[in-house]
Amino acid sequence: MLPVPRASRRRSRLALIASAIVASAALVLTGCSAGAPAGQSSTGGDTGAFPVTVKSALGSTTIDAKPKRIVTWGWGAQDIVLALGIIPVAMPKFTYSGTADGVLPWDAERITELGGKTPQLLTFDTGEVPFEEVVAAKPDVILAPYSGLTQTEFDTLSKVAPVVAYPEKPWSTSWRDQTAIVGKALGMTKQTDALVKKTEDSVSTLAAKYPVLKGKTFYYAAANEPGKLNVYRADDPRVQLLNDLGLKNSPSVAALDSSKGDGSFFYQLSYEKLSQIDTDLLVMYFDKQSSVDAFTSDPLVAAMPAVKEGRLAAIVGESLVMATSAPSVLSIPWSLDRYVPVLAAAAEKVK
């Protein structure tokens, strides 16, 4: 099951370690070398862009000089940094969908292309920021534009290095905005603009090969809990990627949303309300085929028109699920050729 990013954190622990972090950070940064670590590429870009200020929902961050030691947190930021030809000094460890070492496949391929080594991997499964591990990485900047950082975490990390958080809500930054934010923070806006354009072109080209998708409605959900669906709202990046491919959000997504305004990127729907879903495609992710079979064997699920008529687009496999759940300029090209045919096969069944 794809881990759902956690909005809540254990705040008491922060209070206990905050002062220790400040002291440790001061010692670490005082002794920090200005050179990039072995295996890390030069950031290049426009050194004249600094100082630069990046605004976020948690506060403005000023970066005085071009960062050389980059730490990423959350989803996607490490993809963007790697796509720019830079290997972060530390990034999250992904036990779901990652390699044996905890590196996402497209990141592992890119690190190999760059001739580098796997960076320090940060404990990520708990959803809590591993502050001591971040301090040990000696960052010049911490990039977390697609994350669930709390205000307390942001403030604590800001004592270690400048922190770049999300512009509006946690876990809701589009892949385009993530890329632009990272580009600004690193003084590489020309490069990130080019990455966005290249990615948009690849999406448009593939969408044109599957005109059956254009204008079809979809309802994106996940069966992460017994008897309930997690339904992804319009501002979720995985939903926006389907919009890029020409699909339209089903009116059912908003019509069945009884918890609007709660600040989350998804809401829960009971199986008792499945019959109220009206959509061309039902798009869902699963870790393996047996999970698909278990889901569709439920009588309430089996009775859904989209399931009965083969209009369920089941995205199967942890790596493909992660790549399309956290789309980026690196994961989108890696996944599209596997993703779009599944969507098109379901769209062909629409009468």
Protein described:
The chain is built from 14 helices and 13 strands. By secondary structure, it is an alpha/beta fold. Helices cover 39% and strands 15% of the residues. About 11% of the residues have low confidence. Strands 8, 9, 10, 11, 12 and 13 form a six-stranded mixed sheet that branches. The chain has a three-stranded parallel sheet with strand order 3-6-7. Strands 1-2 form a two-stranded antiparallel sheet. Strand 6, helix 5 and strand 7 form a beta-alpha-beta unit. The longest helix has 21 residues. It folds into two domains: 172 residues, Rossmann fold, CATH 3.40.50; 138 residues, 3-Layer(aba) Sandwich (Rossmann fold), CATH 3.40.50. The protein starts with 10 loop residues before the first helix and ends with a helix. Helix 2 runs parallel beside helix 3. The chain is globular and about 60 Å long.
Could you outline the blueprint of secondary structure elements for this entry?
Layout: H1 11-30, E1 52-54, E2 61-63, E3 70-72, H2 77-83, E4 90-92, H3 105-113, E5 120-122, H4 131-136, E6 141-143, H5 151-157, E7 163-164, H6 175-186, H7 189-209, E8 217-225, E9 228-232, H8 237-244, E10 248-249, H9 251-255, E11 266-270, E12 281-286, H10 289-296, H11 299-302, H12 305-308, E13 312-316, H13 318-325, H14 331-347
Parallel strand pairs: 3-6, 4-5, 6-7, 8-10, 8-12, 12-13
Antiparallel strand pairs: 1-2, 8-9, 9-11
Helix pairs in contact: 2-3, 6-7, 7-14
